[in-house]
Each structure stands twice: as structure tokens, then as C-alpha cells.
Design brief:
The chain contains seven helices and six strands; from the N terminus they run E-H-H-H-E-E-H-E-H-E-H-H-E. The chain has 211 residues and is α+β, with helices and mostly antiparallel strands.
Length: 211
């Protein structure tokens, strides 16, 4: 694994449904940016989390799911590995899906919090999918869930239909604009990874485990 004095503990969490024809070797190759970053000589070695109580990265061949609950020590340069991984997973995925990524500032402690020093914690959502439309569907579903969770504190679910319709319209407009601006037949444009909901630095720390 990388130097334990690295700036961040970087935690990945989520599930990616894979195409039924995907092989174990394809999964290993798609995830190579991660396990080589971790300093491992093989996927089997690198799939283990730096925290023993986390299951790590697991390819569930029975359900064709790629499951993440994996932490690696690292720096900001790990973001490049995420980009490379997402581009590869686009080709293996069967529907749009999300991966939560949390950067925990290992140099931040309770004394820093008492001194009002902000941590460098960061959080983002990665979206992968076989097509841009599938990725947008995953983004839309996540946004609907987040908005409804917040607004159901004040309104009945039956009152929120108009909110869902407006969100659908926004995503429909975005997709139409994408279709109009891209030559969809070009190689490499079947899907694209996207990171959103970037929380920035500081604020309340997220728990390490996201089970």
C-alpha cells in the first residue's frame, strides 16, 4: 500500500451492476489504476482495504455486481486514477450507477477542530454507465431521492409530483443539448464519467463507514 503518512484516507463505496458477459480479467484490468496506485502487484492483493474491517473491492460474479467498500491512503493525484477507472467501467456497466468517494484529511484531529482549523476533507459522487443517457438517469434518480428526502420533512409525498416533473424536464433539456453538441457515433463517447455533489473542504466530517 502507499505511504501511511499520505494526506488522505480515500474511501470508495458503492455497487456497479455489470454486463452479464463481463469477465473477471476485464474487471481486474478496469480497476488496475486503483490497485497499482495502492502499490499492489495484483488485483487480489490490491482489492483488500487498508482497514481490516472493510470488505474491500469484490466482484460478485453470481449477481454481476462490482462492490466497493475500500480505503487507500493517498494524495490528490488519486483523482486521475478515478477518471481512468470510470472510463473503463463505462464499458462494463449495464445501467447507470454511482460510487461515493470520500477524502479524509489524516492530518486533521480534534485539537485542530477546537482551534477552528478546517479539515481538507472532500466528498464527490462518481457516475458511470454504458451511455450518457444511463449516466444522466443515475444522476436524476439520486437528485430526486435527495430532494424528496429534504422536502418530505415539510410536505406530503403526494404534494411533490411537480418537483419530480421539473427535475425530469431539466435532465431532458440537458440530454437534448448533449445530443445536439456531440457526434454520438465517435469511439469513446458511449459513456463519460461525471463527478458532482462536491462538498468542498471543511464542515462536518462524514463517518468513515458508509454501510
Amino acid at each position: 500500500m502507499k505511504d501511511l503518512n499520505s494526506t488522505f484516507d480515500i474511501h470508495l463505496h458503492g455497487e456497479i451492476p455489470l454486463n452479464a458477459k463481463v469477465t473477471y480479467d476485464q474487471v481486474k484490468e478496469a480497476l488496475k489504476p486503483l490497485w497499482t496506485y495502492a502499490g499492489a502487484r495484483s488485483f487480489e492483493e490490491g482489492a483488500a482495504s487498508s482497514f481490516e474491517d472493510e470488505p474491500g473491492i469484490h466482484f460478485n460474479e453470481q449477481d454481476m455486481l462490482l462492490e466497493f467498500c475500500w480505503t487507500v491512503p493517498g494524495e490528490d493525484d488519486f483523482r486521475q486514477c478515478l477518471d481512468e477507472m470510470c472510463m473503463s467501467l463505462n464499458e462494463l456497466s449495464v445501467v447507470g450507477a454511482t460510487i461515493e468517494v470520500t477524502f479524509y484529511d489524516t492530518e486533521f484531529d480534534e485539537e485542530d477542530e477546537d482551534d477552528d482549523r478546517e479539515s481538507k476533507d472532500d466528498f464527490l459522487m462518481l457516475f458511470v454507465g454504458p451511455t450518457p443517457a444511463a449516466i444522466m438517469q443515475a444522476q436524476r434518480d439520486l437528485l430526486i431521492a435527495d430532494v424528496f428526502h429534504m422536502m418530505e420533512r415539510h410536505f406530503e409525498p403526494s404534494e411533490l409530483g411537480g418537483i419530480a416533473e421539473e427535475i425530469d424536464r431539466l435532465f431532458s433539456d440537458r440530454f437534448n443539448n448533449l445530443v445536439n453538441s456531440l457526434e454520438m457515433g465517435k469511439p469513446g463517447e458511449r459513456g463519460s464519467n461525471s463527478a458532482s455533489n462536491n462538498s468542498g473542504h471543511g464542515g462536518q466530517r462524514k463517518p468513515r463507514h458508509l454501510h
